[in-house]
Every structure is written in structure tokens, then in C-alpha cells.
Amino acid sequence: MPSDIKARLVRSASYFPVASVERSIGYYEKTLGFSCDYRGGDPPRFAICTRDGHTIMFREVSDAGLIVPVEKQGGTWDAFFWVRDLESLHEELISKGAEIAYGLIFQDEYQMNEFAVRDCDGHVLGFGESVNR
């Protein structure tokens, strides 16, 4: 390997355990605007969904009681996305029936407008846009 080539990360994905991969695919496609790139199994037990190049993987678990979103552990989000035109995204997701975990707020600590939605398994997805004040 030539010494001038540096290792680099080329893609990442959040990984969510879910009660039903099929239900999660439907929710992410219809409500959150993702597309399903891969389904494994029949019925699917694993899937990869993306929106704007950002990926979430789903793995069906045998006991839905084992699903513990970060929010239930004292955290905030299971995934966070920096976005352009936050208000339009907020309106889009509301119009599609997304469950809003918290509405548009300004986070003074890190100068960001943000909101969050909760998916069908309780995972919270945060969306934020930096503000230059």
C-alpha cells in the first residue's frame, strides 16, 4: 500500500433493533421519506434504508421488550442529522404524520435549531441546522 494513501471512513449507519422490519420499512418510507435499499429474508429480518445518502439499518429482534431506545436510557437521540432547510423538513414530516418528540427549538449551548421525531419502535431521530448568530 502506498504511503501517501490514508485510511478513511467512507460511510456510516445507525443500527436499530426493531420489533418488525417490515413495519419499520413502511414507516421510514411513508413517514420519514427514506427508501429501502436492501431487505434480507422473507419476510425481511434485516433492512437498510437511506435518505439523502444517510443510512439506518434495521434488525428484527425476537423480543421487542429488549428494544431500549437511547431516550429511555437517559439520552436524547438514537441518530442525529444535520440538515439544510430545517423548517421545511419539519413541515414535511408533520404533514406525513410523524410523531414529534420535541418541536422546533433553539439550542443556545451549540447554536442550533432542531427538532426530533420518534419512530414506531421509540427510536428518536434528531434533526438540526446550525445558526450563525
What can you tell me about this protein's structure?
- The protein has 133 residues and is of the alpha/beta class.
- It folds into 2 domains: 9-62, 2,3-Dihydroxybiphenyl 1,2-Dioxygenase, domain 1; 69-133, Signal recognition particle alu RNA binding heterodimer, srp9/1 (2-Layer Sandwich).
- Helix content is 15%, strand content 39%.
- The chain has helices at 21-30, 86-95; strands spanning 13-18, 35-40, 46-51, 54-60, 79-82, 99-107, 112-118, 124-130.
- It has a 4-stranded mixed beta sheet with strand order 1-4-3-2, covered by helices on one side. A 4-stranded mixed beta sheet has the order 5-8-7-6, with helices on one face.
- A hairpin with a 5-residue loop joins strand 2 and strand 3 (46-51).
- It starts with 12 loop residues before the first strand and ends with a strand.
- The model has no long low-confidence stretch (mean pLDDT 94).
Structure at a glance:
With 133 residues, the protein is of the alpha/beta class.
What secondary-structure arrangement, pairings included, does this model have?
Blueprint: E1 13-18, H1 21-30, E2 35-40, E3 46-51, E4 54-60, E5 79-82, H2 86-95, E6 99-107, E7 112-118, E8 124-130
Parallel strand pairs: 1-4, 5-8
Antiparallel strand pairs: 2-3, 3-4, 6-7, 7-8
